[in-house]
Predict the structure.
Amino acid sequence: MKAVYLLTSILLLTLLVGCTQLTRQTQNTQQSTPQSKDAPAQTKGQSSVPKSERGTPAEAKAMLQQAVDHYNSVGRKQALADFTGKKPPFVDRDLYVACIGPDHTIIANGGFPYLVGTSVDAWKDADGKPLGRTSFDIASSKGEGSVAYRWYNPVSGKLEPKVLFVQKVGDDVCGVGAYNPQ
């Protein structure tokens, strides 16, 4: 019985020491993370994510153009791997490249790689509007365009308005979206 109490005491002591070290590491990380002096004060109703942590619609358009140029330069297979592999400059803050194949399946997604291989035909935004097929149809018929919708922002953890810029590349459609909270 003494052995059980001794073993239990050792395990609890180890757990306590481990938690203390983890707390210290967390505090050191928080203290060493510089806060921007230029960051605006948060007011009621604003998002908790500073603007500097968000991509803008202009940055989304620029990233899409870089993605299209990369696709045309290195070829489809390498470009799709780079987009899904989160290689800079194809992922930046809450901006990422996603592509849809001619069979309406996701063939690249730098924000949510686990979605590669899934169909976009049933995709709807937070308000129930069709999103995947709409995005594909706009780019396929016009060569490029944009779609406004509401989507989950992995940076803020909230549903937010977003605009997706899409462009046809080969037989595929690639896009980059920017969250645009109001």
